[in-house]
Amino acid sequence: MTRPITAGIDGTEESLAALTWAAREAVRRGLPLRVVHAWRFEAGDAVDVGDRATQERWVRDSVGGAARTVRERHPELDVTTDVLEGDAVETLTGVAADAEMLVLGSRGHGPIMGFLVGSVGQQVIVGAGRPVVFVRAGDRPSNEVAGHEIVVGQQGDPEDSAAALAFAFETASRRGATVRAVRAWTLPPVFAYSPASLQLLDEAGGLEPYERKALAAALAPWRERYPGVHVVEHVEMGSAGQVLLSVAGTAQLMVVGRRARRTAVGARIGSVAHGVLHHAGCPVAVVPPA
């Protein structure tokens, strides 16, 4: 089954930027584009917002207009639209299941807005079984130029980041881009309390050679599968979020794995994804485990 790239739109500038990004990616991958709007009838008293039929017509006209703009820019692209009545989280999570990826707008630097009000964005990330890409209003095709890399975070053992690496290499191969694979590391707490252990570690050459070896092992199968993709191995001491953000200025896309969980007070995403979603200026892809 051919999975479409699905863009969720709600009329905001951010979501229309996400639609534009999704259309370009669909053309590159030779996939259809599905445009989805999650709609719920809003009754009003003080302000005339129209009846159910009127609101639905407004929504369908808006979605249809956005789709026409995409078709004019990409006449070769197969574009379909859906206006689905229901809860935004359930709708977006549901359409993600049938998509190659779900693309949404994001404001960052604060709560994720548009479709993603309050905890909605986190719930979509936690519930989606496919990659979710967040795009800012200022994103432009000119960002996807030579010298702007696909940056991907790698943590743990090779299998821990396999899905994120697969997404990054596939995207880079379509764009002719470089992959910058970032592995951040910190000293285990034991060394803070044991100067003698730290001295032995220094004499052995430190932890960085081990971290470089771990990153190389994780990248090996993807280098073999995508021999034409240039790779930069980036190992740096520091928190993963800070190290990734330090190289975000030359990134055309940031790819991170999903470290998400549900708690008694709602869905929570990992600190790394949380940090880059709010502070990276480029689009960010959050990829669930394989």
Automatic annotation (TrEMBL):
Belongs to the universal stress protein A family. This is Universal stress protein. Transmembrane segments: none annotated. InterPro entries: Rossmann-like_a/b/a_fold, Universal_stress_UspA, UspA. Residues 1-136, 150-288 form the UspA domain. Gene3D superfamilies: HUPs (3.40.50.620). It comes from Streptomyces toyocaensis. It holds the Pfam family Usp. The lineage of its organism: Bacteria, Bacillati, Actinomycetota, Actinomycetes, Kitasatosporales. It comes from the Bacteria.
